[in-house]
């Protein structure tokens, strides 16, 4: 017999998973039904991962945008790149976001009931300073990444059950998802607070916590720049699960767990090409004097660009008024914009 409260809770969960705004598939919807809390945290993290991806590549020809009308290869509500270095970064970044989102929310849940209780939530993380001035963490108050890592991997596996792709691409995506999780783990930070009498700091409360997701994004960008091309082992080597092992094309060695991997070389992303998940750069804003990727000559692929002077209005001279609002003026400025032909 199911209690009324439990039945009501199950109905709410069922409806929430049905109403979530993403391309529903049975595998992901079932995962949502079974783990509504983790799934909702994961969606927050996924969204943040997408934002970091777009921010990281905002000035590049590929800017982490895809043809959203193409629904054949969507993860949640984002069309994913395929088999290239860009696909590697994108998968790693959304995976890192999922791990970060779940881990942060679980940490908040853990410490929120204990806030303001004289640091009792950190009682098992107190250390007395030794002669070498070293503090060692026992970890009871550390952010626990394991649930987030496990759920991110599960989420990617469930999603891959719903899309058509070759086994080698599935392995590539799973490997890069794990690299994304690794990025979070490698970019943690130790925070210490004095807990000794009279503030003498003879005892410290220390714990491992998350750095901003942008730090992991920067680390993954470096891995992207040194990503390695892989193929199915031509000698027929297999993993424990029986699948063909992936090896580097250059020396047939297995990729490291910190290396992003890809299967095919990237297109130039100059022109729109649905098959290559390229939107092209027509209409993109560029900077003629830039020395970076957004220089018009580079971003526009030699097609030239238009220049237009416009008057823009924005808030300015903002002041805080007691109490409690911010009042701003509207200022106009003349700016010159350049867009790729």
From TrEMBL:
Its main location: secreted. One of its GO terms (molecular function) is frizzled binding. InterPro entries: Wnt, Wnt_C. It holds the Pfam family wnt. GO terms for biological process: canonical Wnt signaling pathway; cell fate commitment; neuron differentiation. Keywords: Developmental protein, Disulfide bond, Extracellular matrix, Lipoprotein, Secreted, Wnt signaling pathway. Gene3D superfamilies: 3.30.2460.20. It comes from the Eukaryota. It is found in: Secreted, Extracellular space, Extracellular matrix. GO terms for cellular component: extracellular space. Ligand for members of the frizzled family of seven transmembrane receptors. Belongs to the Wnt family. This is Protein Wnt. It comes from Ectopleura larynx.
């Amino acid at each position: 017999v199911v209690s009324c409260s439990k039945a009501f809770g199950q109905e709410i969960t069922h409806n929430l998973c049905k109403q979530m705004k993403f391309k529903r598939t049975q595998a992901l919807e079932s995962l949502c039904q079974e783990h509504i809390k983790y799934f909702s945290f994961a969606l927050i993290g996924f969204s943040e991962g997408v934002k970091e991806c777009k921010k990281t590549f905002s000035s590049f020809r590929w800017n982490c945008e895809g043809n959203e009308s193409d629904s054949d290869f969507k993860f949640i509500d984002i069309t994913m790149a395929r088999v290239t270095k860009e696909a590697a970064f994108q998968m790693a970044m959304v995976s890192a976001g999922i791990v970060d989102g779940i881990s942060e929310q679980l940490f908040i849940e853990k410490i929120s009931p204990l806030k303001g209780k004289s640091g009792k939530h950190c009682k098992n993380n107190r250390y007395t300073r030794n002669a070498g001035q070293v503090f060692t963490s026992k970890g009871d108050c550390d952010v626990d990444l394991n649930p987030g890592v496990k759920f991110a991997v599960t989420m990617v596996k469930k999603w891959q059950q719903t899309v058509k792709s070759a086994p080698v691409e599935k392995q590539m995506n799973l490997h890069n998802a794990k690299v994304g999780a690794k990025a979070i783990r490698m970019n943690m930070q130790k925070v210490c607070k004095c807990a000794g009498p009279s503030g003498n700091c003879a005892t410290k409360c220390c714990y491992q916590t998350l750095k901003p997701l942008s730090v992991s994004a920067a680390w993954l960008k470096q891995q992207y720049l040194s990503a390695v091309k892989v193929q199915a082992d031509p000698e027929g080597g297999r993993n424990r699960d029986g699948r063909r092992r992936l090896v580097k094309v250059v020396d047939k060695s297995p990729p490291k767990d910190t290396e992003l991997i890809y299967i095919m070389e990237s297109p130039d992303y100059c022109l729109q090409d649905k098959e290559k998940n390229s939107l092209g750069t027509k209409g993109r804003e560029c900077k003629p004097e830039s020395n970076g990727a957004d220089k018009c000559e580079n971003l526009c692929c030699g097609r030239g660009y238009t220049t237009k002077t416009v008057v823009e209005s924005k808030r300015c001279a903002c002041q805080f008024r007691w109490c409690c609002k911010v009042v701003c003026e509207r200022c106009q400025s003349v700016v010159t914009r350049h867009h790729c032909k």
